[in-house]
Amino acid sequence: MGRNHARVLADLPNATLVGVADPSEAARAACVVPRGVEVFADYRELLAKLRPDAVTVSVPTELHCEVTCAALEAGAHVLVEKPIASTLDEADRMAAAAVRAGKQLMVGHIERFNPAVLELKRAIAAGEVGRIFQLHARRNGLFPGRVQDVGVILDLATHDIDVMHFLTGSSVARVSAETAQGTPEAMLAGLLRFESGAIGVLDVHWLAPSKVRELTIVAEGGTYVVDYLSQEVRVHRVGGVAEQVEVVRREPLRCEHERFVACIREACSPDVPASAGRDALEVALRLLASAARS
Question: Choosing a second label site near 17 at 20 to 30 A (CA), which of 77, 148, 195, 205?
Answer without folding.
Answer: 148
